[in-house]
Amino acid sequence: MSTESIASSPRAADGAPPSPTLRxxxxxxxxxxxxxxxxxxxxxxxxxxxxxxxxxxxWSFGILAAIGAxxxxxxxxxxxxxxxxxxxxxxxxxxxxxxxxxxxxxxxxIVHTALAFLATYVVFLVLGLGFVGLPxxxxxxxxxxxxxxxxxxxxxxxxxSRMTTQRMSSLLMxxxxxxxxxxxxxxxxxxxxxxxxxQLGSFDDLSSWIFNGTLIAGGLLVTTFAVYIANDMQTLxxxxxxxxxxxxxxxxxxxxxxxxxxxxxxxxxxxxxxLLHNLSASGMAVMFLxxxxxxxxxxxxxxxxYFVCAWSFLGALVASVxxxxxxxxxxxxxxxxxxxxxxxxxAVFIRFLGVAGQRE
Length: 360
What we know:
Blueprint: H1 3-8, H2 10-14, H3 22-49, E1 53-54, H4 61-83, H5 98-130, E2 135-136, H6 138-161, H7 165-186, H8 206-239, H9 247-267, H10 274-293, H11 295-298, H12 304-325, H13 331-355
Antiparallel strand pairs: 1-2
Helix pairs in contact: 3-4, 3-6, 4-5, 4-6, 5-6, 5-7, 5-8, 7-8, 7-13, 8-9, 9-10, 12-13
């Protein structure tokens, strides 16, 4: 494959997933209708068992809807992702080792399940703030649940059926942001930011489960993300766009370590094991530094503009360290900035990986 052919391919041109097919769109609609019917039954049962339940609160309609959305998301994500390995551009996934393919599937399912729960929970949380005290009667319980489960099914099926490196990157960003913000607004300690960022995961309640669960599932997704990156980079190496033939394995390995470290930050909250928590967070930051500093060697052949961005991220990281040491930044601000820099860089790296090989 020549450099020109890469530049002219749909994926390389804009990094977007292949256009949806009629079969995929039709399957998404039929599955959404089926899930909507099941949702109507589920909503009717809830309406009869919990008449006039509130939109938000403990065991409210919003929580029950989020649980229902997460269940259908898990089933649909598993079915859709498994089936999509036969689609054009996804055949390479069939060559993966069985354990690796299984881990990838599990991580995709977990993230879509968690995203469905968080998104539904947040929607009803906002509705609860807008319709204070509004009870959900049986009729609206049936309608709302049918719509919730139907829309969840449609969105999740299309997402897993067109999975690419960029789509997975977008999922990672959306998941981390949504999970973190949900933990912030539901935490029992409204002054958590006066301590440190990890304080969000130190409570035995829903907000901490959301925060720690987001880090664990996000770390698992990063390890899957590494497989997609390795495949894209191998294609670029074969085309001569990247000159370091060992770069796919090196970069993907660093991403795997970063994902494991991110998951361990959630597995070991500060109130459970401070040492392992801090070592995990530091390990993730070290992998980020290695990828930035080693970029000119690992990623030789990437567009010049990418390296300008990478060095800008490194400069911002160094500036943040200096401002933290001089006590201009609080620990919370420093942690949030480093967190944002890591995931911001991932998004930029994937965008440029998708256009590597094109003429500037």
